[in-house]
Design goal:
By secondary structure, this protein is α/β, with parallel strands linked by helices. It has 5 domains: 167 residues, 2-Layer Sandwich (Beta-Lactamase), CATH 3.30.450; 103 residues, Phosphohistidine domain (Glucose Oxidase, domain 1, 3-Layer(bba) Sandwich); 118 residues, Enzyme I, Chain A, domain 2 (Orthogonal Bundle), CATH 1.10.274; 132 residues, TIM Barrel (Alpha-Beta Barrel), CATH 3.20.20; 147 residues, Phosphoenolpyruvate-binding domains (TIM Barrel, Alpha-Beta Barrel), CATH 3.20.20.60. It contains 26 helices and 22 strands. Helix 1 packs antiparallel against helix 2 and helix 6 packs across helix 9. It is globular, with a radius of gyration of 30 Å. The structure holds phosphoenolpyruvate and magnesium ion. The site of phosphoenolpyruvate has 11 residues, from strand 16 and helix 21. Magnesium ion binds next to helix 21.
Amino acid sequence: MLEILYRIVQKVNAARDLDQALKIIVDRVAAATASDVCSVYLVAEDHANLMLMATRGLNPEAVGRVRLRLDEGLVGLVAEREEPINLGDPERHPRFRYVPETGEERFHAFLGVPVIHYRQLLGVLVVQRHEHRRFDDDEVAFMVTMAAQLAGVIAHAQAVGSIDALHSGRRAGRNQRLAGVPGATGVAIGIGRVIYAPADFAAVPDRAPENVEIEEETFLGAVRSVRAELAKLSQRLSGSVPDNEHMLFEVYIHILDGNTLVEETLRRIRAGQWAVGAVRDTIAEQVRLFDEMEDSYLRERASDIREIGRRLLMRLSAANEDTRNIPEKTILVGHEINATQLVEIPRDKLAGMVAATGSVNSHVAILARALGIPAVMGVADLDAAQLEGCELIVDGYAGRVYAQPARAVRREYRRMMREDAQISDRLKEFQSLPAETLDGVSIRLYVNTGLISDVSSSLEIGCDGVGLHRTEFPFMIRDHFPGEEEQVRLYREVLEAYAPRSVTLRTLDIGGDKMLAYFPIDDEDPLLGWRGIRVTLDHPEIFLTQLRAMLRADIGLGNLQIMFPMISRLEEAEEAVRLVQRARKQLHEDGLEVNDPKLGAMIEVPAAVYQASSLARRLDFLSIGSNDLAQYLLAVDRNNPRVAALYDELHPAVLRAVSSVADSGGRAKVPVYVCGEMAANPAIALLLLAMRVNGLSMSSVNLLRVKWVIRSFSFREARELLEQAVSMEYAEEVHTLVRNALESKDLGRLMRPVK
Ligand code: PEP
Ligand code: MG
């Protein structure tokens, strides 16, 4: 059964559009279950009816015509109950309803299963038989599994199908809405520009060539270099690998030398497609032809064609990288976008970002926030390629994207953008004012840096220094570890810029969603694996180089603080402290007079919450990394959009954990800071202030909002809010509490950024 299921899903996945996908479903499922009828009903746009969308066995004319109310007939009953209904004599059931348009005969067995995607009913999959025999348990299990698998495919095909419609004429006003999760707040209106992984065919967008001749030459150049590469490989392998393997390269070369691939691609380029898109289409066509062959040897050739295509695509992508001309108001769209790709687009041309993967606290989303670029992440049904050149609205507040928006929608978002601009103007008033409450209690506000270095604007807004400098970025954009001298230069730049204000440099925090191409970490579960301090303690040579560079950069300044990420055991903190002392000693022996910086541990693992007092006794400060802390406390992957709704910094457990760390620090008289995104949320900042946290560190774009809120409340009011918040059992209650508090001071507009 599993094999059949797999084959069906594979076929459906390869379908051109929703219609074809449904047709494959009904044909294959009918055959697999030996049923006389298989039909798919989908919930209509009005959410009140089910529409027959495909059938095998009923009158084909009924497709698109038969509509059943959700409370009508047996199909409606499946929808209503959201569970399978398996009947021997369906006609005797009180909910049975005969639908003449379907040409339905007398069937004596009925099995309907709901198709549900993320709690949402998409439709009903039905099989029927003449035979007087109920479907057996295995068949029901097969149908349920089938429906669960197909739900994702149908949801995707529906989304893509409607986007496809956008391209028939590319007119504005079609207003396709895509749902994701907020990545960075704000609204952007611009033009979609697709980026894709060099080997990802499905993500290649259509694009018109700027110059057909150049495009042809680029393609032919790619063919030549792939051919040369293959010939070299073939030569190198001859004699050292079995003939069969070796022959493979000859086969590849043969395919490249054949006329079809080159001629077909050139034809497509001349017809108005850029080289990359033309290769994509030629390869897809060839693969389809081979895939459909009965002979298994010939079917295998499809994978050779794919491999050739992949190689060509890599070449062409490399050739296109520099020449791409980036339009104004670019909205970067991609299946997966990483931090490096985001910063490659000139800031003045980058308006927004949309990604199919990632979630609110993925590092690329944090970077977008630091850049002030509205972003929507985790758009599960995103078919990135289709959005190339489309007008897009990115609503980073609600986590929505509109393609080819209707005029009214655009007008509304323009109004929102004007309102945001007014808020930004108003925020300037707070630049030179201290972050203190109406009754004079102050809190330090720091900026998070490292992802971008925009020193002047951070200083202008009146920050107290840097609470978190993420050092990994320079490691990520290079193809080797940066050396000690280079690191000294990088750290000196930040320390000098903010001196005499303190600058907290965090030691290298790789692993999780921050990987180095040149230092692969192959963990099955990277978030629970080799991350942060675990990596650097295992590689003292890397760690000591970094520590020495930090200490050297601080010579003559004295504003350096160092903190260690991902501490989950006291021994790690102790070992890290010992290594700092070792680095100091080494430098001292080299005749350098280095300072004795304050050292801190990040509290971002639940274990560290429970040992915060012990850590506080061994270190000079604690800094709560709420992004990871919430992730590990709630067991919600911060990068996984599927569980984004469960990631909640106002979850009572998160609030209690943070509050308990603040207490531990207070008792030990060791300062406690919060440097995760929680600190950047104006409403939560108020609660953190009430917890007596000593400082908040955030991306500079949020700092003035936070200051505004702090200056609008008294400490007493903040305490009262906190007391209520910690007594609440549901996150939603806390959300309402803080929302109402801000609205009571007419600061509701600042709340848009909150969940
Ligand atoms: C955190 O986890 O809250 C944090 C500040 O570190 P990062 O987001 O870089 O993991
Ligand atoms: Mg972290």
